Structure formats: C-alpha cells, structure tokens
Amino acid sequence: MTTTIRHLLAGAAALTLLAGAAGAQSITIAIGSEPSTLDPQLRDDGGERQVNDNIYETLMARTPEGELEPGLATEARQIDETTWEFDLREGVTFHNGEPFDADAVVASVERIIDPANNSEQMAYFGTIDGAEKVDDLTVRITTTGPDPILPSRMYWMKMVPPGHATDGDIGAEPVGTGPYRFGDWSRGESITLERNPDYWGEEPEVETATYRFVGEAGTRLSGLMAGEFDIITNLLPEFTQTAPKFAAVDGLETSVFVLGTDNEVVSNPKVREALNLAIDREAMVQALFQGYASIAQGHHVNPAAFGFNADLESYPYDPERARALIEEAGATGATIDVVGESGRWLKDREQIEAVAGYWAETGLVPNVQIQEFSQYLDSLMGDGPRPDSIFIANSNELLDADREASFIYHMDGAAASNSDAEMATMIDEARVTTDPEARQDLYDQVFAKGHDLNYTVPLFNLQDIYGMSERMEWQPRTDAKLLIKEMGVTE
Amino acid sequence: MAAFLLRRLIQGGLVVLGVTFTVFVVTRIFGNPVDLMLPLSASPEQRAAFASELGLDRPLPVQFVQFAGELLRFDFGESTWQRRPAMEVVLERLPNSLLLIGAGLGLAIVLSLPAGILAAQRPGGILDRIVTGLSLVGLSMPQFWVGLLLIVLFAVTIPLLPTSGMGSPAHLVLPAVTLALVPFARLTLLVRSQMMEELNKPYIRTALARGLPHRRVLVGHALRNALIPFLTLAGWELVLALAGYTVVVETVFAWPGMGLVAIQALQRGDLFLVQAIVYVVAVLIVLVNILLDLVFKLVDPRIGLG
C-alpha cells in the first residue's frame, strides 16, 4: 500500500516536473510593492522601475557591474560645455509600431521636464534645458550649465512613444522599445509581460514574466519555498539559509551619520575622530546583516560610482583611542544628539541604536531621538539648527559622486551640516568639470578632506539580497535593476 | 417603518459628514503631506510647486470651502499617489475587502453558533473544554503569526493552498480562516455564556418539564433570547473589519483590500485617497447599523424602532 502511494506520488512529481519544463520559459517575480502607475516618467518608485525597466529603454545603459555603455544611443559626445549629441540606433520601433527616432527623444525629454507633468524624476533631470533634432537619428540635449554627468542622467530617462504618450493611457498601458512588452495588469494582483518578438537586440530566454506584489517578507519567502515564485526581492539576511537559492550584490544605499560640525561638542575635530573610531563596524556587519553588507571605505560614496576615492580606507575600531580623544577634548559627560527614523531603510533603527551604544562607551552621553518621518525630514533638510548627528541611508541611482558631495558635503547641500567654503568650491568645480580625470581628482580631494576632518561617520554599503528558485539562473546587478533579459531558467 | 428609515438615514448622513470633515482637518493640521508625497531628493522649489498645485498652500478655510463643494458633487479629487480618481481606487478595492470580510465573518458566525451551543450543554465537559480552549487560543495568538503559520503549514509543508494573492476560491481559504479566528473566539464564548444563562432560567426548566422536545426548547426559546447580544457583537465585529482591522490579514496574504490601500495612502500622505476611503467606510458602517436595527426588530418584535 505504502509503495503504491509512493509510486503515485513519484508519478505526480514527474508530471509536475514535465509541466514545469513545458512552461519553463515563464517565471514569476515577487516584488514588495505594486507600482502606483506604469507611466515611466512620473514617479521615483522602485516597484515601477522593476517592471518598466524591461518595457522601456534609455539612451545609455550600464553593464551589470555598473559601467556606462550604449543603449538606444550608439554614441554620445560633448559638442560644447552645455550641449551633448547622441547618435541613435537605427531600425528600432516601439511596441505599438511608432518609430524610435530623434522626434521620440525630443518628445521624451520635453515631456519629463514639462513643469505641468510635475515629475518626481526631476530630481535627476533638473539640469536639462531641452532637446533638439539634428536629423532623424541624431539629437542634441542642452543643459542649463556644464553637466559632465548628462550621459549618466540619460541612463535614467526612459524613452516614450510620442503618439501614445499624448493620446494613449500610458499610465495603464506602457509602450516602450524594450525586450518585453506589456501583457496585462490585474490591479492589486499581478502584472504580466511578454517577450517582444521584434526586439532589436538579442532575443531573451524567458518568454513571459509575471510580477506579484507581496509586501510581507515572510510571505514572499513562503511563496518561494512553495514553488510559486522564481525570484523574490529583499530577502532578509537571516533567511538566506532557508531560501532554495539566493544571490547578494552590493546595493546602491550607503548608511552614514552626518555630523553637525558647527555644533558645540561636535565642532571639536577630536570628538569627531572619536565618533568614527568608537564603532566596531565589523561586529555590526555580522550581527545586523549576517555579513551581507560592506563597510564603507572612509566616505559614503558607492564604490561603483564615478568619483569614488579608492585610496581611502575604512576607519579602524579603536575604543581606547576614542575614549582618550574624548577626554583630551574635555567632552566626557557631554550630551550628543543622535537623530534618526525607523522603518524607512533596512535595519535603520538597529544601526542607530548600536552606534549610540558604541558612542556611549567613549564617555559621551548619546541622546537618541527616533523621529516620525516628516519630522525627521525637517531635521535632515529643514532650516532649523543642525543636529549633532543625523542618520541617513543615501541612495545613488546615477552612480556619480555629485549626489553624495552636493547633498551632504557641500555647505549649502540640503542635508549638509558643515560650513566648509573651500570644500564647497571644489564640489562646485567638480560639478562643471567635463574632463573625467580632472573631475576624479577633485572628488578625490573632497572625500579625502571629508575623511580626514571626520565630517561624517560612514557606516555600510548594504547588499541587496534576492531569493531564487532552484531553476533560476541570474546574477543580480549593482544598479538594482531587475532585467528579465538577463535571466535564465535551467531544466 | 418608513419614518424610522428616513430618520436613521438623515442621522447617518450627519455622521458621515462629521467624520469626513474631521478627517479633512486632521490630515491637514498634522504633518506636512507634501514631504511624504515627494522623494527625499526633491528640491524646496519642487515641494512648493507641488503644494501650490494641490492647493495646500492656501488658508485652511479656503481649502475647506472648495472641499465641501467637491464633496457635494461626489468629487473626491485625484489620488496623488496613483494619479487617478481617488474614488476609482476605492471602488476597485472595495469588492476584494467585502469578499474577505464576508468569507471570514461568515465562517466565524456559522461556526460559533453550534460551537457555543454545544459547549453550553455540559459546562465543564470535554466538549466545552475543547471549544473554550480553542477560543482562548484564537484570542491570544497574534493574527500576523497565525497567518504565517497557516501559510507554512498548508501552503509550504503540505502544498494544498496558494501562499498569497487572490484569483481563485482556493486563495480565499487561508485569509478567511485567519480573519475568522478572533471573531469566532469572541462570538463562541458569548454564545456559550448566554446559552448557559438562559438554560438555567426557570422558563426553560418549566418548558422541559412540560415535555417540550429538547431541541425546540433549545433553539426556539433559549437561542432566540441569546441571539440579541450575539447579533450586537457580530455587528461590532463587522464594523471593526470594515474600519480596516483586516489590514494585518491583507498584508500577510498580499490580499488587495482596502485596509492595505488605506495604510499606503496614509504613509504617502495621499489626502484625497484617505478622504475617499474614510467616506466610503463611514457610509458602510452607518448602513450596517441601520440594517442591524432592522434585524433586531425581526428577531425580537418587542424592540421598538424608536
């Protein structure tokens, strides 16, 4: 009897496998949140990108390691300080048959910078003045000032078909040039994409991909283990042993404390040095992230980004020296405000509390303030007094150090807490320097100075972890894009 | 009857208006919605432009007058998060919520009546102990944990049901059971104690002594009297569920209901969507209450529709 049942079960399992093989070209991806719209030019939303990155394409692309490479443009060159020219790929059409040409690029640029559209992505495109057609396959993009990172910006701007963008419902029915075209969106449940048979590039392996929206990490993992999903995003470090397969890659986010260098206690360079030396980052990587985080190398710039200073090293852990420095500075017993939030970034509260614990051992008295998010934003970017220290996980989608430098190191930056005019001048200069070597040199100086004067307390470059089913073959990308064309299925 | 309905509908309308206006004021006074709607990297100019586009930079009374005008035309504005009419988002999710609540509470009501009656037959007996024990377990386990436990048991270890999402009747089973657990426990304990009380009353003993069949006494007399508190509590459970207490179940099972949308709308400072949700929920709760009054009257004709 038992044998019969076992045979039956084996037969059933074999059948399931066969069925699986027949549908091997279909995969299911569970992401954390449903896109609010599939208009590719409106939101700054990870869920939307995870879907649209497969439907739409950009003038510039990146290799999985983050190197800029040609996309819909075959070449980019600078004409003068404020003008870039792009040669466009020939014979590319949108999924609805509209041609991809200079007119489409001009329309895409103009649509995104149109104030009436109020695009959240203007944070990336604020320097763009306009676009003009040179001929059908050549287009020029002008900027309001010199902008060396325009090609990086164009890696972020999705090209839309002018006709459909004006007359169609582009928010519900996306139409791009990409390797996958839109299939179906059942709101609240799933989005399905199909392989684009007319794709200009190499034909991808996966035929159809279904996205499911599962907010709860435990449920995503259960779905993976039950065989319902092939890829799940944001696998928690503690679940890596449970998942059938997983892959981790350095992500875009770096956590850091910005120090209020004009504040009473923290203005003393010895105190700031002590704050950096007091933290056992290695222990935190193991305890909080099970090893799935890298220690930031003395500054909070992403190692894959242009401008990263490869000569800097992470601060060592030296609690005795930290205590001695605090004593020398006469700051023993002084209070230091530690401001942060909770729930926005992976293990944010845990990081804040652990760091405050290390700081307490130096003789300082940390005053941890976990704030409600809009109050926190006000502390981070408002006009009020700068906090002694404030936590942020900085994300760099453009993979260029201008973001870190302008936002946190430049004295006029929204989240900056210093008044270093010399550093600000260097950052301003780097922003308009078009020679890559000279620009790298400026950033090297900026970040070396920030490191030596301890303007910030850099913590970790967090890794993105994906759970995968046994049959999935995929290496995640540094830029966190989920590109189905890079995925494969064994069987 | 007609006069009763008219009066209750007018009262209900006032309640809905009061709730809607309260939400309007509260969402605008506490916190800055624009901060929540725009990404961290948005510039102060972008923030100001967005605030002015939404009319949030105008004085509160001016905003209020406009809001009241739009409300009269049933125009709830556009969800800033989804960029489509707020009411469209709500009406898309409402059926999913009603399905989940219907299945969950239906299950709780249908099972709690026999469970409670059986338990009351022999207080302290083995059946009573099982039912009471189960109810206490149901009450004390966090819904979140029960949900994940059921997924691991019935979708991963024994792959009978899907882990999450909706689309087939099978998808409804685990979320409905999880949602049913707490109301089932509360209702069962109530039926049990009510029945025990009724069964000890002299009229029951008299009826039994006169030789009336046991079942008729139980259902026709004791249960009928126990039904009023039962319906009151069931109504309360329904109101709770409608008010968004399903959000934990929706999160665990990725069920696209209203509770989840309400939380997301709040997190993203989507005032217009929050207002539309609150309005619809308030209307539903008022209707449920009117319906309950009518059912009470049906069960116990002595209750006046006053």
From TrEMBL, chain A:
Main location: periplasm
A Gene Ontology molecular function term of the record: peptide transmembrane transporter activity
The keyword Calcium is annotated on this UniProt entry: no
Domain Solute-binding protein family span(s) in chain numbering: 67-379
Places the protein is found: Periplasm
SUPFAM superfamilies (alphabetical): Periplasmic binding protein-like II
GO biological process, one term: peptide transport
GO cellular component, one term: ATP-binding cassette (ABC) transporter complex
Keywords (A to Z) from UniProt: Signal, Transport
Record's signal peptide: 1-24
Similarity section: Belongs to the bacterial solute-binding protein 5 family.
Designated name of the protein: Peptide/nickel transport system substrate-binding protein
Biological source species: Palleronia aestuarii
Automatic annotation (TrEMBL), chain B:
Subcellular location: Cell membrane
Membrane topology qualifier: Multi-pass membrane protein
Pfam families: BPD_transp_1, BPD_transp_1_N
Sequence ranges assigned to domain ABC transmembrane type-1 in this UniProt record: 94-296
TM spans (from-to): 12-31, 97-119, 131-158, 170-191, 226-248, 276-296
UniProt keyword annotation of Transmembrane helix present: yes
GO biological process: transmembrane transport
Swiss-Prot/TrEMBL keywords: Cell membrane, Membrane, Transmembrane, Transmembrane helix, Transport
Cellular component, GO, one term: plasma membrane
Similarity section: Belongs to the binding-protein-dependent transport system permease family.
Name of the protein described by the UniProt record: Peptide/nickel transport system permease protein
Species lineage: Bacteria, Pseudomonadati, Pseudomonadota, Alphaproteobacteria, Rhodobacterales
